[in-house]
Request: fold
Amino acid sequence: MVAVAGSSSVALPMIQSAGLDPIWFGIYLVLVVEISQITPPVGFNLFVLQSMSGRDILTVTKASLPFFFLLLFGLILITIWPEIATFLPGLMINR
Reply:
């Protein structure tokens, strides 16, 4: 997430010039980063869980599959219908 925070000042003008909602893109980016944290080969969270549980990495990876599919489903939903991610922030902004 440090790389995301460090590059956001460069990426924000590009996101806005592409016509994307910055709030939607932030939520999208968080989901993508979390998916990358629970999938091999990087899967940092998998290695943390492996060291905490004492199980082998294959067992931990198999146990994380339901969460992977839920995150992927959410990512697909907000890609098809961006209003899902921007509805509540829109209510707070338009108060």
Notes: The chain has a mean pLDDT of 89. The CA atoms of residues 86 and 92 lie 10 Å apart.
